[in-house]
Specification:
Chain A: Keywords: ATP-binding, Nucleotide-binding. The complex is a heterodimer of chains A (about 250) and B (about 500). Chain A is an alpha/beta fold and about 250 residues long. Chain A has nine helices and twelve strands. Chain A has a six-stranded mixed β-sheet with strand order 6-9-10-3-11-12, with helices on both faces. A four-stranded antiparallel β-sheet of chain A has the order 2-1-4-5. A two-stranded antiparallel sheet of chain A has the order 7-8. In chain A, helix 6 packs parallel to helix 7. Chain A is globular, with a radius of gyration of 18 Å. In chain B, helix 3 packs antiparallel against helix 9, helix 7 packs across helix 8 and helix 10 packs across helix 11. In chain B, strand 3 and strand 4 form a beta hairpin. Chain B has one domain. The radius of gyration of chain B is 22 Å and the shape is globular. Chain B has about 500 residues and is of the alpha/beta class. Chain B is about 25% helix and about 35% strand. The chains are: A alpha/beta (about 250), B alpha/beta (about 500). Chains A and B meet through helix 2, strand 7, helix 3 and helix 4 of A and helix 10 and helix 11 of B.
């Protein structure tokens, strides 16, 4: 279980999160919606532990542990996964090498035996096949020359391989056309399980047609101002974020 | 965006590591008095029992050197070197030249073991295995201060007509070859440091691959400066006769000392018709400490001549050491259809300075050259790529492609690219690409979010950046490079 309590965070001295409360149980999918500048991406970076995002107040308890006290790589090893809005390119580093380094770092942290080349190859073939991806993508450098859709699919593959307990999907729909969106959403849905929680961050309701959440929250001006079921998303689609005091031009 | 201080710190730790080869060995040495004059040149020549023609050549070089001035055009700065305040000859004391490893001072063998080159083991292993083709062995020539102390696998190579020995030994046993080729690529009038080398060179390796022979193993030399206040002036000469092939590896280390030590080597390569020479270097001379005290001045002249048609010379270098590097491995593409290649990774950290690059001189028709240079700067280091591509009027259809990438770590280092291009033939095609990048916080955070520690992330990213060059290294040497760069080699999977 993940418990976020009264979370305040600043970026460059400016307070962006102003007291967020949220509880996510195993297996649940929560969506966070909100206007630009509400603090959605800040929230994902704070949970993942990015430098420069300073928590000034509040706590995040992750399966009984203090999440905020951990380094980013420790959080990853404990099962926190962030699917990036803009996946980063790493020239010259093969996708396979990257994934193998990542999974073995995590296994090592957990006191598990590292996978050898053959075991890893078997695992990754299985996962790519399940996601309907081509092997060709594995041979390329991490995200280099990938289309928007390919980058997001690559994030999904990483998630499938690393098997997180808590996945944060930051604006996964941005930059995707409807076909690519469907494919990525299918991949994500395939990874839903009773042990895995997800936090889906999005500006548009569209994504939630495909990844149907259990709960929807509206984040505005650094606070969760409204929570409800999946129907809340449809309401927002109709009325926009004006009701929550956000200016459109944020 | 500037890197976070912690990142800079991590990177420093990774690239600096601790200089592992900083020990000295207690061996009684035979040292020439300090200073440089004609008597010293004669002393060295006499110690080596050299023939008259070689002494004359040395003396001619010395007289030319006295009229020369140190080059000032490189983007490096250092206090003036007092050439009189160094020893120009130091040799481990021994009776006669070692006939076999059994006669080599055990202290010396221990040193090489510490450096990771167990000479004896290699020979024994080879003796046990016997069969060719199995895990390729490496023949090693070890140069300690001024003297070659042991060359392994000599007998085996001799069966094929391959000569691989200390150059001082080649002077005695194969004077006709040495006389014919020594100074034929880098003449004794070439430049300040090369000319000094001609006058006082002490030892180095000599390789001759006869017509049509493909050398079955990597040939390797390890250079080590042990004695304080000595310069190392080694001379390497490699000749690949018609249709021959050889892959040669060079590694270097030195003890950790507070004073700067001069290393002014000369390497000459000659490739005849259809011959190929692949020359790889992993240079890890002591770079000085974090405050910039001490370290080796590496002022080296390396040049290869593609004399014959369809010949090929390929330089691959991984440069992580030295306080100052001044080095431009070059190719003279004389034969028609000859090929020159230069692949380089240079890593500078703290106060290291490197001015390095290559020269490709296209003389023959349809000559081709490829330059791939990867520079990584961290700390307060400064690095310059300096490259010349010259196409002469007769070089119909010549082609060159240059790619020059710099990676900056932190905000106090610098990278500079200085290409010189001269074309005197209209049919020539020359391409130059250059990029400068930083390891971004985005990349580091992305890796860490996937569970990879910051240190490993830096290694991964740097490794990716250098990949094109590292894959050119022979497998046997890749491990060495991996240790040095602190990276795990790509491609171990699938």
């Amino acid at each position: 279980m993940i418990e976020i309590k009264n979370l305040h965070a600043t970026v460059d001295g400016k307070e962006i999160l102003k007291g967020v409360d949220l509880t996510i149980r195993p297996g649940e999918v929560h969506a966070i919606m909100g206007p630009n500048g509400a603090g959605k991406s800040t929230m994902s970076y704070v949970l993942a532990g990015r430098d420069g995002y300073e928590v000034t107040e509040g706590s995040v308890t992750y399966y009984g542990k203090d999440l905020l006290a951990m380094e980013p790589e420790e959080r990853a090893a404990e099962g926190v996964f962030l699917a990036f809005q803009y996946p980063v390119e790493i020239p010259g580093v093969g996708n396979t090498t990257f994934l193998k380094t990542a999974i073995n770092a995590i296994r090592k942290h957990r006191g598990e035996k590292e996978l050898d080349a053959m075991q890893f190859l078997k695992l990754i073939r299985e996962k790519t096949k399940a996601l309907g991806m081509s092997d060709e993508m594995l041979k390329r450098a991490v995200n280099v020359g990938f289309s928007g859709g390919e980058k997001k699919r690559n994030e999904t593959l990483q998630m499938a391989v690393l098997e997180p307990k808590f996945a944060i999907l930051d604006e996964t729909d941005s930059g995707l056309d409807i076909d690519a969106l469907k494919i990525v959403a299918e991949g994500v849905n395939a990874l839903r399980s009773p042990e895995r929680s997800m936090l889906v961050i999005t500006h548009y309701q569209r994504l939630l047609d495909y990844i149907v959440p259990d709960h929807v929250h509206v984040l505005a001006a650094g606070r969760i101002v409204k929570s409800g079921g999946k129907e809340l998303a449809l309401e927002l689609e109709k009325n926009g974020y004006r009701d929550f005091g956000a200016s459109e031009a944020a | 965006m500037a890197a976070q201080p912690e990142t800079v710190e991590q990177v420093r730790a990774v690239t600096e590591q601790k200089y592992k080869y900083g020990f000295t060995t207690d061996i009684e040495a035979d040292v020439a008095p300090k200073g440089l004059n004609e008597d010293i040149v004669r002393f060295i020549s006499a110690k080596k029992e050299e023939p008259e023609w070689l002494l004359d050549w040395r003396l001619k070089a010395f007289r030319v050197w006295q009229t020369m001035e140190e080059p000032q055009w490189a983007a490096v700065s250092f206090p003036p070197i007092d050439y009189q305040d160094a020893h120009y000859y130091a040799a481990p004391k021994k009776k006669a030249g070692p006939k076999s490893l059994d006669e080599v001072d055990p202290e010396l063998l221990k040193t090489y073991e510490k450096l990771g080159i167990p000479l004896r083991e290699q020979e024994i292993l080879a003796g046990v295995e016997g069969s060719e083709g199995k895990s390729p062995a490496i023949a090693v020539d070890a140069v300690f201060d001024s003297v070659s102390v042991a060359t392994t696998f000599k007998a085996k190579l001799e069966e094929m007509g391959i000569i691989f020995c200390a150059i001082s030994e080649a002077v005695q046993k194969h004077p006709e070859l040495v006389k014919k080729y020594l100074g034929s690529v880098v003449p004794y009038t070439d430049n300040y440091y090369a000319t000094l080398n001609c006058a006082v060179f002490t030892d180095g390796s000599f390789v001759y691959i006869p017509k049509g022979v493909r050398c079955p193993m990597e040939l390797s030399t390890y250079f080590r400066i042990n004695q304080a206040n000595t310069g190392q002036f080694e001379r390497t000469l490699i000749i690949a006769d018609e249709g021959a092939y050889v892959s040669y590896l060079e590694g270097c280390t030195a003890p950790q000392r507070d004073e700067n030590q001069l290393h002014a080597a000369v390497v000459e390569l000659v490739a005849m018709d259809d011959a190929t020479i692949k020359y790889s270097t992993v240079q890890n001379w002591y770079p000085g400490n974090a405050e910039g005290v001490g370290g080796i001045y590496n002022f080296v002249t390396k040049r290869g001549a593609c004399r014959g048609k369809n010949s090929k010379i390929s330089w691959t270098q991984v440069e992580t050491g030295s306080a100052i590097t001044w080095k431009y491995p070059s190719c003279i593409l004389q034969g028609d259809n000859s090929v020159g290649e230069f692949y380089s990774v240079a890593i500078t950290n703290n106060f290291q300075q490197a001015d390095t690059g290559t020269k490709m001189i296209h003389i023959g028709k349809n000559t081709r050259s490829t330059i791939v240079s990867k520079g990584i700067s961290a700390g307060k280091a400064q690095q310059t790529y300096r490259g010349l591509v010259k196409i002469l009027p007769r070089a119909e259809g010549a082609r060159n492609h240059t790619q020059c990438d710099s990676l900056l770590i932190g905000d106090q280092c610098g990278a500079h690219t200085v290409p010189y291009i001269e074309s005197r033939n209209r049919s020539a095609r020359i391409e130059h690409e250059a990029t400068t990048a930083k390891i971004s916080e985005d990349q580091l955070f992305y890796c860490r979010q996937r569970g990879i520690s910051e240190e490993d992330a830096v290694s991964l990213i740097v490794n990716g950046f250098c990949k094109e060059v590292l894959k050119e290294l022979p497998m046997e040497f890749a491990v060495e490079a991996q240790k040095l760069v602190g990276i795990s080699l790509e491609g171990s999977v699938g």
